[in-house]
Fold this sequence. Notes:
mainly beta
Amino acid sequence: xxxxxxxxxxxxxxxxxxxxxxxxxxxxxxxxxxxxxxxxxxxxxxxxxxxxxxxxxxxxxxxxxxxxxxxxxxxxxxxxxxxxxxxxxxxxxxxxxxxxxxxxxxxxxxxxxxxxxxxxxxxxxxxxxxxxxxxxxxxxxxxxxxxxxxxxxxxxxxxxxxxxxxxxxxxxxxxxxxxxxxxxxxxxxxxxxxxxxxxxxxxxxxxxxxxxxxxxxxxxxxxxxxxx
Length: 228
């Protein structure tokens, strides 16, 4: 079951502090989700139908600063806030699990656009695929993913026509961070791919059709395998 809602005004404070090989990282942000619709997906656990898995995605605007030692890496203010998507998931997962999740949020100068798409064991038909444009959610038909090579992926509209909103994206990986644990019967393999989306989306709002094109907007694709 997939459902959508516009949450009440939500703010959260985020504090970041840690040490890296390059120096000390510090950050402080206020996140605000007011005015955005979100998408949630609830499904029964494969091993026990009485238990459920819950996932929720919600766009946020961020105001604050991130620094490495004395060098400011990222600065976001009220006139030019940073944009991002909060991912919240809880539930019961099967022993063998797999999902791919892609996401991005950006401002074209005319529109704020958030992308969310992917598939998993509890969502094989892409019922989580959606766009959020200027705060309003637009559902997508299931998307087709083509892995061109290790650094390039393409996402295109699927074969059904229930929803007239469309998407045609290419992703180019700029950086990969992979972690894993392998104890034979217990295994986790997480590949986080950061890079840039280019392409276009088309949304249907009543009788009006709007096409939004963009190039090299930052985003990521997460590829997860597990036996746990």
